[in-house]
Amino acid sequence: MSKISAIAVGVAVVLIVGGIALQRGFAADNAPMPQEGQAAPTFTLPNQEGTPVDLASYKGKWVVLYFYPKDMTTGCTIEAHNFQRDLDKYKALNAVILGVSVDTVDSHKQFCTKDSLTFTLLADPDKKVVQEYGSLGNFGPMVIAMRNTFLIGPDGKIVKVWTKVDPNVHSDAVLAVLSGLENRG
Question: Were 75 and a residue from 29, 167, 169, 184 both cysteine, which residue would form a disulfide, CB within 3.0 to 4.6 Å?
Fold first, then answer.
């Protein structure tokens, strides 16, 4: 094999492996992901207005805590629009939506303004909460939140966990589970 062919094969392998890593995202150094039945790890993070939001303040409500990679990107915008579209359905089920990414307060504010989002986005640029929920990942050189969602019950316990969600249909899936739980109780 010539030197040029060997280099070409090496580059092809790097591109293939890199492409797989970009599609899947590598898990970063996370705490174990909280599981169904466990108490949801508590936290306080600033919202898109810079106001601290404490998870404990939602006791008595269902909380859809969703982690997403990046403000104003295609998949994240689709997912946010779908949650926004269904916001009245969540409110009717005594549920709130909390979106979390490693973006800044300013980035969240721009995202909410640009896309008319009225639910709460929480900024975790220090990556502490994302990591505590086992949702920190890498996308190439960027450290991001992986697309995972935790449904937290009114008692503060995790009722359902979704990992690697499809942003196109995720809100529908969450509503289906939440509606079923509400109808049982």
Answer: 167
pLDDT (average), residues 9-36: 55
Q: What's the CATH fold of domain 3-184?
A: Glutaredoxin (3.40.30)
- Report how far residue 138's alpha carbon sits from residue 130's, in angstroms, rounded to the nearest whole number: 12
* Euclidean distance between CA atoms 66 and 152, whole angstroms: 11
Which residues are annotated as catalytic? Answer: 76
* Run of H or E residues at 12: helix 3-24
What does pTM read for this prediction? 0.83
Domain coordinates of the chain in residue numbers?
Answer: 3-184
CA dist., res. 103 & res. 124, Å (int): 6
Sign of the CA dihedral with 141 first, then 147, 148, and 154 last: positive
Q: Buried (b) or exposed (e) across 80-96, using 16+ Cβ within 10 A?
A: bebbbebbeebeebebb
